[in-house]
Inverse folding.
């Protein structure tokens, strides 16, 4: 039996604001939210079986480092969509700038950075 990725947890400035744009752009739902470790707050946003845990510590601090240069760094989150053009319009409406578009076997993709500096890759397979 093959394992399934159930969730990923990463730090954001404002979990509720991040969940809100993810709901608008990706159609996800908030599954749970509440107090978390070290006086922080977490929102779980996603679908019935997979989600992202968006955690904010009591005093979040921005990172000026590139995740691509750090062992264990989160480089990007890949999201599979059915309509990449409609999703790109929603990304722009959310205030983010798509970049690095490419058509490749077996589909299309683009990237965008959110207001936390997290890079997302949006993919549609043919």
């Amino acid at each position: 039996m093959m394992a399934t990725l159930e969730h990923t947890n990463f730090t954001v400035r404002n979990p509720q604001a991040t969940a809100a744009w993810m709901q608008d752009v990706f159609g996800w739902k908030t599954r749970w939210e509440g107090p978390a470790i070290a006086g922080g707050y977490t929102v779980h946003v996603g679908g019935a079986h997979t989600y992202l845990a968006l955690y904010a510590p009591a005093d979040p601090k921005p990172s000026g480092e590139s995740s691509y240069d750090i062992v264990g760094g989160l480089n990007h989150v890949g999201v599979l969509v059915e309509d990449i053009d409609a999703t790109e319009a929603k990304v722009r409406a959310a205030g983010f700038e798509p970049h690095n578009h490419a058509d490749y076997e077996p589909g299309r993709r683009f990237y965008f950075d959110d207001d936390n500096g997290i890079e997302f890759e949006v993919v549609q397979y043919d």
Notes: The beta strands are 7-11, 29-36, 40-46, 51-56, 77-80, 99-104, 107-113, 119-125. The mean pLDDT is 94. The first strand starts at residue 7 and ends at 11.
